[in-house]
Amino acid sequence: MSSLPLTTAAAQPVAAQPAAAGARRPLSAVLPALGLGVLLVLPLLAGGYWTFTLGLCFANAIAILSVSFLVRYGGEVSIGHGVFVAAGAYTVALMEKYLGLSVLAALPLAAVAGALLGAAFAFPSRHLSGIYLAVATMALALSLPEVLLHFSTLSGGYEGLYVKLDAVPGAAKSLQRYYLPLLGLAAVVLLLKNFRRSRQAMALLLIRTSAHAAESFGIRRSWARLWCMALSGAIAAIAGALLSFSSSTVSPNSFTLWTSIFLLVGSVVSLYSLSLVGSLVGGLFLTLMPLLLAGAGNWVPILYGAALLAVVLGVNALPPHVRARLEGGRT
Amino acid sequence: MGDLIGLAWSGVISGCLYAMGAIGIVLIYKSSNVVNFAHGNLAGLAAFIVFGFTAGILGNMAWGVAVVLTLAIMVVVMAASYLLIAPLVFKSDLTSTIATLGIGLVAQGVTQLVFGSNVVSMDLPLPAWKAQLGPIRVTSYDVAVLLVTATAIGLLYLLIERTRVGIAFRAVSANPFASRVCGLNLRNVHLFSWVVAGVLGLVASLLIVPTTFLSSTSVASFMLQAFAAAVVGGFSSLPGAVLGGIFIGVLMNLLSFYVAAEFNNTYQLAIILLVLNLFPKGVLAVRGGARV
């Protein structure tokens, strides 16, 4: 990619305005905590329908974070992230079916499966520009339903598999399906925040900003590509594991090319944000839009497409300093 | 052996169509560094417009008129699509590539909205003619595909090698910065490649319809083979796109006959991964190092 879509925090003029940054800091720290607090007590007020929908929404938000992570740290687009989500979901379902393990025990395995799959697909395109990765992931997304249907004795075929075991024995099922994804989302956001300060994150951002400079420091671009995809795949697989737990079922139908494209749309709508609020905006958009538009089947792709274009073009049309604040403030 | 030659022949025929799709993708990528993921959906919409004009949904006219009218519509649609993402093109390849996905979603939605999501069948006005050349069975459809592809590629060759806009296209794809310094209008070159890609997409999608049924997603999934062809040929090589298309066509035919027919997309994935490993920049691309 010759030009980068989003500049990193290091390159932002925000750093040159300590007063403005200092004034905004308390709000940006308080808002997520406040939001988290509201979400924690929400099941006590809202009905079962909303706790169920919001549980799915949190899991989707994690999946969106994985796409945003890839864009932010790798400067890559993936049109196949539904596959990594599926890897996590099926890992959980299969572990329960054959080993009787609950979602909590299967979660680390799901993450590892997602990471391995991500690295495997980044490997052939490790020296190439991102379009090759995009096309390869698109082919991956298309071939997944075929493979799942072919190994139907293992994967459950069209009907899919069920996830029934409790994560915490004894607690109410609907609350588990709400709180587990919420905790997962909070944990992933926290991890990403800390990751930003790590050596690895610095290396990845340096490579994305200037591959040549990074290579002369001894950081290999192919290594970064593998790392990015592996981490992103792991996050997506965690999302899939929680999604399968919250919806209590997995089937090939829920992991088509459309799933992957919609995840990308959600990520664009959240402006590739890696924060709690940003990912929740994307997750809500992705989860609630189809519900709101339940009667308007054919309008759904048009609306998603229009939303995507509107966000992309709208952000581009904003004055540069507003855009920098929206996009770059915190990577 | 007879099977093999017959399969290879029909693979070449469908490969020609993949090649036409791939050329469109490569043209746009070469001139503007944008991967147009809307290509299949836009071509599918075009095929449906021809269907609408001939089957009485939008009108009831002769084939030739319908195709010419649709060509005109396609030129407008492609130009509009490009102008929509034009503000992004020079800013970020990634963002403009994502925007083409938005255009594709809208095109898909419009197709479903106007024509429904049912499967329809459309016949091309071809004479019923058949001949047997050894193991190869040649139909009028095969001849039509070969003739149209040869004509289209020949015209494109002349357009790029002999006309001013073609020279501009080559200059821009070789070095956009130098071309702009020399006073070329990059937007016009981009517009040219989008429109030509759209026309090629329309022709390819019309020709693919007799072998498959027309549905709101059939052309889009056919264009995925075109993406695989573009990868095989190296994303920025026009001859590579042609070779890649024919290669994919033949290989897919052989695989689905000798191995199993239900794994079409999985074969594509395997081919893409394998080619990326063996020839990282495509079969016809020159390898170059980077300077720090």
Question: How would you summarize the topology of this molecule?
Answer:
The complex is a heterodimer of chains A (331) and B (292).
Chain A: H1 18-45, H2 48-74, H3 81-99, H4 103-122, H5 130-150, H6 152-155, E1 161-162, H7 173-195, H8 199-209, H9 211-216, H10 221-247, E2 249-250, H11 257-269, H12 276-292, H13 299-317, H14 320-328
Antiparallel strand pairs in A: 1-2
Helix pairs in contact in A: 1-7, 2-7, 2-10, 2-11, 2-12, 3-4, 3-10, 4-10, 7-10, 11-12, 11-13
Chain B: H1 2-32, H2 39-55, H3 63-89, H4 93-115, E1 130-133, E2 136-139, H5 140-162, H6 164-174, H7 176-181, H8 186-208, H9 218-233, H10 238-258, H11 264-278
Antiparallel strand pairs in B: 1-2
Helix pairs in contact in B: 1-5, 1-8, 1-9, 1-10, 2-3, 2-4, 2-8, 2-9, 3-4, 3-8, 5-6, 6-8, 9-10, 9-11, 10-11
Description:
The complex is a heterodimer of chains A (331) and B (292). Chain A is built from 14 helices and 2 strands; from the N terminus they run ααααααβααααβαααα. With 331 residues, chain A is mainly α. The two termini of chain A are 19 Å apart. Residues 1-23 of chain A have low confidence and may be disordered. Chain B is mainly α and 292 residues long. Chain B has a single domain, classed as ABC transporter involved in vitamin B12 uptake, BtuC, CATH 1.10.3470. Chain B is 73% helix and 3% strand. Chain B contains 11 helices and 2 strands. In chain B, helix 1 packs antiparallel against helix 10 and helix 2 packs parallel to helix 4. Chain B starts with a helix and ends in a 14-residue tail after the last helix. At the A-B interface, helix 5, helix 9, helix 11 and helix 13 of A face helix 3, helix 4, helix 9 and helix 11 of B.
